[in-house]
Amino acid sequence: MMSMNILEAFKALGNPTRLAILQNLREPEKHFPPQDEGDVNVDGVCVGSIQEGVGLSQSTTSTYLASLQRAGLVTSKRMGGWTYYKRNEANIKKLIELLGKEL
Amino acid sequence: MMSMNILEAFKALGNPTRLAILQNLREPEKHFPPQDEGDVNVDGVCVGSIQEGVGLSQSTTSTYLASLQRAGLVTSKRMGGWTYYKRNEANIKKLIELLGKEL
DNA sequence: TCTCTATATCTAAAAATATCAATATGAATT
DNA sequence: AATTCATATTGATATTTTTAGATATAGAGA
User: pTM of the predicted model, to two decimals?
Assistant: First the structure.
């Protein structure tokens, strides 16, 4: 299990789009359309759907998701041609606990 | 009382120096020298002492402190020629609670 | 008033980030 | 194998952040 790093998490979330992505992923079915393959609640949301939500280019969206993943805030799962991203709830919880202690 | 903004807090703390300043201010007497006027625990720490700790220029240190203050994470008090900065514990608590709910 | 001393602000340069278009990759299908 | 679709990566530019030096300000004391 990844050990969370406060600074890296802050850097990733200090951007309005990346913060919004993580927050929207709290209630996937509320913010993203249903998917043919993969349940948004179970498997995560594909990059294309996330891109529509944020209104930025495909490449920027992909880069942002990679950044959130490096910070340990989301996980990705490849299924066929799609990549599904979802929140890493365990790490987010860990981060909040860490903040309570060290911030 | 200022209402905390998650994004602004993340932006301010997504910098290693600013994060370290806030963390060092948790235990002022452990990280900063005693002051002739003003108790580091009660009144806060003057800019000069904070600057020594971070090893950056006076102007940068002052700018960083202003940024932390705009984000609601510290307060400042002017006494004579010195400005003393201390943590805004109420807002920091509020921020952590907000993160627990909204992040 | 003149001069220190501490801090804030202004200006400018260098470094990092944001962002997109183009291209590459990889899986599924024809 | 050629095509298509979704995503990742690369290359390039625009914007923001970082950072320091110079200057301004304000209080304390000679």
Answer: 0.93
